[in-house]
Structures are given as C-alpha cells and as structure tokens.
Design goal:
Strand order of the largest sheet of chain A: 2-3-4-6-5
Number of strands of chain B: 11
Largest sheet of chain A: 5 strands, mixed, barrel
Shape of chain B: elongated
Order of helices and strands of chain A: HEEEEHEEHEEHHEEEE
Number of strands of chain A: 12
Distance between the termini of chain B: 37 Å
Distance between the termini of chain A: 68 Å
Largest interface: A-B, 69 and 87 residues
Number of domains of chain B: 2
Helix content of chain B: 40-55%
Shape of chain A: elongated
Oligomer: heterodimer
CATH architecture of the largest domain in chain A: Beta Barrel
CATH topology of the largest domain in chain A: OB fold (Dihydrolipoamide Acetyltransferase, E2P)
Structural class of chain A: alpha+beta
Order of helices and strands of chain B: HHHHHHHHHHEEEEEEEEEEE
Helix content of chain A: 10-25%
Largest sheet of chain B: 5 strands, antiparallel
Number of helices of chain A: 5
Radius of gyration of chain A: 27 Å
C-alpha cells in the first residue's frame, strides 16, 4: 500500500518538522524583501525642487501697488531687507485660495501687504495674512500714493513647451508641487483662483516661470484645466509686467507633447 | 473551527505568521521613511505627508502582490499551502495600510480648500477622456472600497451569514482591487517619475502575480482533477483503490461540475464532497488525521462516514455512495444530503 510522507500543515497543530525550515525561510525572505524594497523605493524618490514657505524669513510686510491681471500682482514700491522695491510678487491667501476678490477694490492703489513668502528660484509669491492684517490701504500724505502703472512690455507671440501649474504649490507650498500625480491638487488650487504659472522647458527672457491668463486677459480658460500638469506646447502673447512675464495663452493651440 | 464567534482564534502559528508579516511591514516603512531620506541628496525634503503616502501606498501594493501570489504558489507547490492559513490577517493589514495611504493623500491634496474634501476628490479632475492626466484617483477609490469590503467581511460570521459560495464570490473582489491598483499606479505615479526603480519593482511584481496565475492554471489543466467517465447506470469512474494513498484521497469531477473526494482509511473507502463547508477548501487535498478528514486550508474536520464535524461542531458536507466494480471505484454522482451516513466500502484483498 502506498504511504504519503508529504508534510501536512494544520494551523492549530505544531508545524511538521519537514515544513519548519521552509516556512522559516519564507518568513525571513518576506521580511528581507520588504525591507530591501522599502530602502530601494524610498531612496530613489525624485527631487521635489527647492520651493518652500520661507517661514525662516519671518513675516514680510511691504508697500506696493496692486495690478489685477485678473490675478493680482503686487509691484513693490517700498520693500524691506528681503523684498526690494521694484520687485513684483504674485499673491495668494492661505490654503488653496487666491485673493482676486480681496484685491479687486485695490486696483492701481498703494497698499500694505503682509504675509509669508514662498520662494522657488526667481518665482516669488506672498501668502497674505487674513483680513486687514494681510491687505490694507497704505496711509500717507497722498504724494507717495501717486502711482504710474508699470509699462507692460510686449514680447511678441511665442510657442513654448512646458507645464501649467498652480503657482502656490509650485512655489513651495507643496513638495512636489507639480507633475501629473499632483494634477487634481493643482486643479483645485486653480479653481480657488491661485495664480496659474507656466513652467517653460526653456528660459524665456531669463525666467522659466510665466503667469498664465487667457488670451483676452481673463482668468485661465476652462479648456486649459484638462492640460494642467501635462507636458504641452502652446502659443500666446508674452508681456512683461514689472519683473514677471505674463503669458496670454491661446487655448486653441495646445498640443500634448510626448 | 469554533462553536461561537470570537474576534480571532489565536494560536502559535497565527502569532508567528503575524509577527513575520508585521516585521516585513515595519521594515519596509522604517527603511522608506527613516533610512532612505538620509540617502537622498535633495536640497529640500519631500513633504512628510507625501513621503508617508508614498511609503504606505507602495507597501500596500507589495502586500497585495504577495497575498495574490500565495494562492497560485500553493497550487504549484503544496508547501505554500501553509501560507494560505491566516492570509486574512494579511488582507486586513493590507486594507489598513492602504487606508493610511488614502488618509495622507486625502488630507493633503484635497485639504486646505473651501470645498469639502470628499466632494473635491470627485470634481477636481474630470479629464476622463485622456490617458495622461486621467483622474487615476478613481481607481484608488475602487481598490480601497474593495479592500475594505474584503476586510470587513473577512470574519467567519460573514462567511456563515453569506454562505461559502457567495462569500467566495465576494472575495474575488481582490482581483478587482489588484487591477484597480495597477491602473491607479500606472496612470498616477508612474507617469510622474524620473527615477524608474519603483517602476521596475512595480512591473516585476505585477508580472510575477499574473505569471503565477497563468502557471497555476496550466498546472491545473495538466495535473488537475480528472473528469470521471460515466457508466451505463450513471455512476462515475474515479480510479483503482490502489491509486489512493492511505489517509489521503483522489478527487474526480462529476458531470454536474461538483467534485467528489474518495478517501482511503484502514482498508476502506469513503466518498465525500470535495468542498469544505467553511470556505469551499479542497478537502480532497487534505488528510485523515485521527479518523477525521482535515481541510488543508484552515483545518476544519469531518467524519468520513457521514460528513459531519465531530461534536460540539456542527458543520456538515454531502456524502456519496460508492462501489467497487471490476476493481474500479465508482461513485453515484447524486450527492446525499449533508451529514448522511454511508457505510465505508471495504477494499477487496
């Protein structure tokens, strides 16, 4: 009669001797593989870039003039140690919210803005404090409140390649703050009126960051949302406003690049 | 086996199983979260929330891959059958790890806005008509729901409540979960990486899981249970008595698709259903221990003569009438009601 010597495992009995070495090896292999994979995957994460909230600079308070494009730009007229007069800042509120509604009444007026700076290369954004603490009319005798809007310098029509991002995450509110895995977050920021920024694959006039508006000067067109975070090329008029480039994108010219 | 529902029927093997599993998960997370940042030369670190989310997400994927590899491995090499035992703990822990990944993601990417984060999750990206930029989060949601359903229904209460066939069907959701995770990762983080180490590990894992399943199917076709020939009286041929090893069984497929397991014990033969009443485990691949057929999956036991579990347990499986004709075992394909006594048939000397 045939006999069976195959070890038979029953959970609530002792493990058969013939199986012990095998199961011990399987357990050790499991732990070793997971540990090695943890180290391998963890140590090959992509660099998220150098953008960051600059809490280390402390609270920044500057005087400047608001230009609504419609996303607001602050042309600094009276700066501080960190932010010099003549610089141009994009503005945002806390979280995933822009400040278009807050700045709409201050267009062309001199204001005092206060908040924390976000910095990524030459991309600067000021996250304003809440209420009047973050944005209020500048007080003075009236002479310094006369402001000549910066001459917008047209730089012609361009076809450029790159990625549409939300300016705040890109500037360092999140690391990483761009790419397809971040697309939904970027869309949510853009829906909240955070200024959109086009990251060009090649520098244009010395910068790779351009604020994006519609070709008629309105907010980011709806058609652009499907292409946020993708590598695309598009055409548009580029203008210089202060030290920031503004791209008036033509949504009909978007092409997805491989 | 139990006569009442208790949260976990702990025994030493479950402690060892869970200890290895936890050691693997802790090892993965510890090295990912606390050792690898020292290796990275980033000017500024990845946000902790994103770093944690990636660690838990990658860990959940690998755990799910391992869980799905155990089944076909057990078909190909019976020694792996021991790893099927307590696999539900592995599954529940995977659901917890996946949930943690989802929590970090949801409370980071969809937080800080004026919208409800759950609503924002659904409306923030609606580019369903394109490959790149597709809202891959939807696949993650599907996978997480599947894993949570599986974890929530993993207890034997649900097995008894739903019945083994339906419970097993529900638990095939594991495949939907895995396919969804593969889509979630493929359309998400894989589209967004410069370094392709994770891509390689991901592809190899998914290919190994798929390959093992294909191999197991081919193995089953080659060495699987034979469909018994039917004689003029409608009885089904199984094998010769000497083909059956003492305390073991041979399995035959009946015309209606059910499987019968014919056991040999101390010179006698008995036929019972091949499906364990617990999780439809293959009783015919089990062994007779102390006169009781013992299921190879979770150790449920049945008497050979009537298919009943010994008191105080109440499980029952169908029995079959059998006979030896011209030196060949024949089985009546009409199953007896579960628990029906059938006198074992003596093997002629």
């Amino acid at each position: 009669m045939k006999t069976d010597t195959t070890p038979f495992f029953v959970g609530y009995f002792k493990v058969p001797k013939k199986l012990r070495k095998f199961l011990l090896s399987a357990g050790i292999l499991l732990v070793a593989c997971l540990t090695v994979f943890g180290l391998l995957i963890g140590s090959t994460q992509d660099d998220p870039g150098n953008g960051a909230f600059r809490f280390d600079y402390g609270r920044q308070t500057v005087t400047g003039v608001i230009e609504n494009l419609p996303y607001p730009l602050l042309h600094v007229t009276e700066g501080n140690d960190r932010i010099k007069a003549g610089e141009t800042l994009m503005l945002a509120a806390g979280g995933k919210m822009g400040v278009m509604a807050r700045t709409s009444g201050f267009s062309g007026q001199q204001i005092v803005a206060s908040g924390v700076l976000l910095e990524r290369g030459d991309l600067n954004m000021l996250q304003l404090r809440g209420g009047r603490q973050g944005l209020r009319m500048a007080e003075g005798d009236g002479t310094e409140m006369i402001w000549e809007p910066p001459v917008s310098e047209p730089l012609g029509r361009w076809r450029i390649a790159g990625e549409i991002c939300d300016g705040k995450c890109l500037a360092g509110a999140m690391r990483p703050g761009r790419g397809l895995a971040h697309k939904a977050c970027a869309n949510l920021c853009l829906i909240g009126d955070i200024p959109p920024v086009f990251v060009s694959s090649q520098p244009i006039e010395g910068t790779e960051y351009l604020m994006v508006v519609d070709k008629d000067g309105g907010p980011l067109p709806k058609a652009a949302y499907d292409y946020v975070a993708q590598f695309i090329s598009l055409e548009g008029e580029i203008e210089r406003h202060g030290d920031i480039l503004v791209l008036k994108m033509d949504a009909d010219t978007i092409e997805v690049l491989p | 086996m139990s006569v009442k529902y208790i949260p976990v029927q702990w025994n030493n093997n479950k402690y060892y199983y869970d200890a290895f599993m936890l050691a693997g998960v802790v090892g993965f997370l510890w090295f990912f979260l606390h050792v690898s940042p020292e290796v990275l030369s980033h000017e500024r670190p990845i946000n902790p929330q994103v770093h944690n989310a990636r660690a838990f997400g990658a860990c959940a994927f690998l755990m799910l891959s391992i869980i799905l590899a155990i089944g076909p491995l057990a078909r190909l090499d019976r020694r792996f059958m021991a790893l099927l035992y307590n696999r539900r703990h592995f599954g529940v822990m995977t659901a917890c790890v996946a949930m943690t990944h989802a929590g970090y993601i949801l409370n980071w990417y969809w937080a800080f806005s004026s919208s409800n984060k759950y609503e924002a999750l659904l409306f923030s990206n609606t580019s369903f008509g394109q490959f790149a930029g597709f809202p891959f989060e939807i696949f993650g949601i599907v996978a997480l729901i599947c894993l949570l359903v599986l974890a929530a229904t993993s207890h034997d209460f649900w097995l008894r409540f739903l019945g083994a066939p339906l419970w097993k069907r529900v638990h095939y959701l594991i495949y939907i979960a895995y396919i969804s995770v593969v889509a979630h990762v493929s359309l998400g983080i894989l589209q967004d990486q410069q370094n392709h180490v994770f891509t390689a590990i991901f592809l190899v894992s998914a290919i190994v899981v798929a390959g093992l399943h294909v191999l197991a199917v081919l193995h089953e076709r080659k060495a699987g249970d034979p469909a018994g020939a039917v004689n003029t009286e409608g009885w089904v041929t199984v094998c010769k008595p000497d083909d059956i090893v003492e305390a073991r069984a041979r399995i035959a497929v009946l015309p209606n698709g059910d499987r019968v397991a014919v056991f040999r014990l101390e010179g006698k033969l008995s036929a019972i259903s091949n499906a364990c009443s617990h999780q439809n485990g293959p009783l015919g691949e089990g062994k007779v221990i102390r006169c009781l057929v013992t299921c190879p999956w979770h150790g449920y036991q049945y008497r050979l003569t009537d298919g009943q579990s010994p008191a105080p347990f109440t499980e029952k499986i169908p029995t079959y009438r059998l006979a030896i004709q011209d030196g060949v075992i024949m089985v009546d394909p009409d199953a007896n009601p579960p628990g029906t006594y059938v006198e074992p048939v003596e093997i002629p000397s």
